[in-house]
């Protein structure tokens, strides 16, 4: 697959087929993440891969945390968090992405984000669907404690075989988002 095809063809997948993903493909996705550029070559990304019963326990815990928070602040304040949880429950693979760097700096977050983008592109090149989920931040501390990790939670990624093929969303032109100074 050509790089431009992957960049322009990748979509955020929110519906997955009920079909497992071979661990070898998950490994390839993780490997792509490890090739991202990182600030000072610290390679501070860490990944927790959940499938089966482990994923079910985590998503049940996450849903419970969302419901508790919703009771306190109101469901309208929860955005798409419950839908993100549903997607996490449906996808065969859930990857929790962490920043292991002791100093939680913007360069560290940028490095981990670059790893995530590599992983999404690799998943697409393998025929997998993926979704970058930030709604896990509603319960980031609780999820870190639940998984017994001392790191900063950055995002979750779902992986699976797409059950839909969404059309590309509208994009702004280069002229709309760029300024050229000479």
The overall pLDDT average reads 95
Say how many strands there are.
4
Give the CATH topology: NADH Oxidase
* Head-to-tail CA distance between termini: 36 Å
Tell me the β content: 5-15%
pLDDT under 50 segments (min length 5)?
none
C-alpha-based Rg, rounded? 17 Å
CATH C-level class is Alpha Beta
Structural class by helix and strand composition: alpha+beta
What best-fitting shape do the alpha-carbon axes yield? globular
The major beta sheet can be summarized as: 4 strands, antiparallel
Query: What is the H/E string?
Result: HHEHHEHEHEH
The fourth-level CATH homologous superfamily is: NADH Oxidase
Overall tally of structural domains = 1
Label the CATH architecture: 3-Layer(aba) Sandwich
Helix fraction bin: 40-55%
Count helical runs: 7
Strand order of the largest sheet: 1-2-4-3
């Amino acid at each position: 697959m050509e790089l431009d095809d992957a960049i322009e063809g990748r979509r955020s997948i929110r519906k997955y087929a009920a079909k497992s993903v071979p661990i070898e493909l998950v490994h390839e996705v993780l490997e792509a993440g490890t090739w991202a550029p990182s600030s000072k070559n610290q390679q501070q990304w860490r990944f927790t891969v959940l499938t089966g019963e482990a994923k079910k326990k985590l998503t049940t815990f996450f849903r419970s945390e969302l419901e508790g928070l919703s009771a306190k602040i109101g469901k309208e304040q929860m955005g798409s968090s419950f839908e993100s949880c549903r997607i996490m429950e449906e996808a065969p693979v859930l990857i929790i992405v962490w920043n292991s760097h002791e100093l939680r700096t913007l360069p560290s977050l940028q490095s981990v984000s670059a790893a995530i983008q590599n992983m999404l592109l690799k998943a697409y090149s393998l025929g997998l669907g993926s979704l970058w989920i930030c709604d896990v931040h509603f319960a980031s501390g609780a999820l870190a404690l639940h998984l017994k990790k001392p790191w900063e939670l950055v995002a979750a990624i779902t992986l699976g075989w797409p059950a839909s093929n969404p059309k590309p969303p509208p994009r702004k032109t280069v002229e709309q988002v760029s300024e050229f100074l000479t």
